[in-house]
What we know:
369 residues; Rossmann fold; Arc Repressor Mutant, subunit A; nine-stranded mixed β-sheet; three-stranded antiparallel β-sheet; 14% strand
Amino acid sequence: xxxxxxxxxxxxxxxxxxxxxxxxxxxxxxxxxxxxxxxxxxxxxxxxxxxxxxxxxxxxxxxxxxxxxxxxxxxxxxxxxxxxxxxxxxxxxxxxxxxxxxxxxxxxxxxxxxxxxxxxxxxxxxxxxxxxxxxxxxxxxxxxxxxxxxxxxxxxxxxxxxxxxxxxxxxxxxxxxxxxxxxxxxxxxxxxxxxxxxxxxxxxxxxxxxxxxxxxxxxxxxxxxxxxxxxxxxxxxxxxxxxxxxxxxxxxxxxxxxxxxxxxxxxxxxxxxxxxxxxxxxxxxxxxxxxxxxxxxxxxxxxxxxxxxxxxxxxxxxxxxxxxxxxxxxxxxxxxxxxxxxxxxxxxxxxxxxxxxxxxxxxxxxxxx
Length: 369
């Protein structure tokens, strides 16, 4: 997409002038519904605004334009990678219109065209288990290989793994919807990941440039994740996880909700189990999602093996048999195997190096295959 043209620049200025004023989003929407485009709202006699919307709204519109913020945003738009999508834009993603409070403007870094492609959201715990991270990465990679855009929130844990998995696919695309301004990266350690996402997808924010991360921003971000995607896959989630908010919003919007089950002993599986009890579809492989949308599988998508099919391991490995599929502490494993501490440590080490076993917090071990 080319840089903003002169005529578009004036339209962008009008939208920025309107949306950057001290007015709540709900009031902004009411003003647009009543008077039309932002320039029409700003041109209204203050007496009319005061009579219909009150003195506080009239005062906000009468105030001097937020010139510094407007010029900063217009300068930001000079970069060919930066875009401002408004409700009046043909490129505005129509999926978001399912929201009663669809953002009036979206700040986008990357390719806005990514926002209108078939998409699946992948969300989950920030402190996910190694198995959860691998599941997120594998499902995202498989979906991206089939032509789906993977949507997530750039957070630690499952979000980052989902973005990375999508980027591992040839020509994979991913979108990060963030709870800061589009010119900021949170958490800061994901700066490199954010750059890669912008090259192969888009970073999207409804918040003005320069906006720092605030706790109340993330539920707002979650509703955009839920609305943009055709379905939401929850990988791991505690019972009070923000991922469950995303899943609930997706269900309310008529989107599909999927969840990966886990061990009954894993606290991060409880949120997924709750979703399944409430009607979410249990998934073990990517085809479990795709069979719900035969009309949405993109043309030319490449079929790949299930992302959860593990590499082969010796079926009769006695230590893996003793481990089972639930986390086990070292002492319990000693009791099950009858091995000494030294012998057990010596047997665990090559399995850890091979990736067949992972060490969890609290001195517990879990097989991954």
